[in-house]
């Protein structure tokens, strides 16, 4: 199963979008049409890379837009870039989401005591390859961190790209601690501090910031898949979410290939990129 992307609008602008196509050239939703599993028997999942490692643009699946293309998040009318909190530069992993998952904002998690954040579940790929924006990778789940973001449960699932030369050595969260010393601590610090330069308080965590193991993480991912099933079949109120898809045949939101193509054609034509503000390179120093 292969996927390609089609960019529209000018990169680094508010109009920029990244649409997805399947191997037949039909436009699809990365939220709803890409299967959660690359290999269900082995618990290998697909993941959509939203933000390549070392970059700052806060790209995300546009859950409220038709076909859910990638777009850059906005904050106070401006494009959002995450701050560099010393010694980090941008995101310190390939950051993205697992398709066909949903953290239900109406469900209070029994472990965290908070409701979901209304998005697909997030992943941090610790593989060596710096992926490209919109790349679909196959990942092995290693563990998870339970971030509490402004009162919402926001799971951060630690994964490794199955194509990584070292993937066979990583099977659980303790392998990350052993083979990439300091990475989990840096991950915790990154999520704790990344909003502080914007004037916000440190983020909080469930389980006292402890990373949960592989089995716990896989169970969490699978539970968000069940919430997504209810969403896409209209058993749950979607609210502002756009569930337009071209492949979930029993979904009331399923549309034709032609309707999907019309969505993409209505977007701005691809053009030269706008400059990235020089302020994005600023380093913030944070006293712990």
UniProtKB/TrEMBL annotation:
Annotated protein name in UniProt: inorganic diphosphatase
Family: Belongs to the PPase family.
InterPro entries named among the record's database cross-references: Pyrophosphatase (IPR008162), Pyrophosphatase_sf (IPR036649)
Gene Ontology biological process terms from the UniProt entry: phosphate-containing compound metabolic process
One Gene Ontology CC term in the entry: cytoplasm
Stored Pfam families: Pyrophosphatase (PF00719)
GO molecular function, one term: inorganic diphosphate phosphatase activity
Entry cofactors: Mg(2+)
Subunit comment: Homodimer.
Top-level taxon of origin: Eukaryota
Native organism: Parambassis ranga
SUPFAM superfamilies xrefs: Inorganic pyrophosphatase (SSF50324)
CDD domains linked: pyrophosphatase
UniProt keywords, alphabetically: Acetylation, Hydrolase, Magnesium, Metal-binding
EC number(s) from the headed UniProt entry: 3.6.1.1
């Amino acid at each position: 199963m292969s996927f390609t992307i089609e960019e529209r609008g000018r990169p680094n602008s508010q109009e920029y979008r990244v649409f997805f196509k399947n191997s037949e050239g039909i436009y699809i939703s990365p939220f709803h049409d890409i299967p959660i599993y690359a290999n269900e028997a082995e618990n290998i999942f697909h993941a959509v890379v939203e933000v390549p490692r070392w970059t700052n643009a806060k790209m995300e699946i546009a859950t409220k837009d038709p076909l859910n293309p990638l777009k850059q998040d906005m904050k106070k009318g401006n494009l959002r870039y995450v701050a560099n909190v010393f010694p980090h530069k941008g995101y310190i992993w390939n950051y993205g989401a697992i398709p066909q998952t949903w953290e239900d904002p109406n469900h209070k998690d029994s472990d965290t005591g908070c409701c979901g954040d209304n998005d697909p579940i997030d992943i941090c790929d610790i593989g060596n390859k710096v992926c490209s924006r919109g790349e679909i990778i196959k990942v092995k789940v290693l563990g998870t961190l339970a971030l509490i973001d402004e009162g919402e449960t926001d799971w951060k699932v630690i994964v490794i790209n199955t194509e990584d030369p070292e993937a066979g050595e990583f099977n659980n969260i303790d392998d990350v601690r052993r083979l990439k010393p300091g990475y989990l601590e840096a991950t915790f610090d990154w999520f704790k501090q990344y909003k502080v330069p914007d004037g916000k308080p440190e983020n909080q965590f469930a389980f006292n910031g402890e990373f949960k193991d592989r089995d716990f993480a896989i169970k969490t991912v699978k539970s968000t898949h069940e919430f997504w099933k209810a969403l896409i079949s209209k058993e749950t109120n979607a609210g502002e979410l756009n569930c337009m898809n071209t492949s979930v045949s029993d979904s009331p939101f399923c549309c034709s290939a032609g309707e999907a193509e019309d969505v993409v054609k209505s977007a701005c034509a691809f053009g030269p990129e706008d400059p990235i503000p020089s302020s994005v390179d600023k380093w913030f120093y944070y006293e712990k």
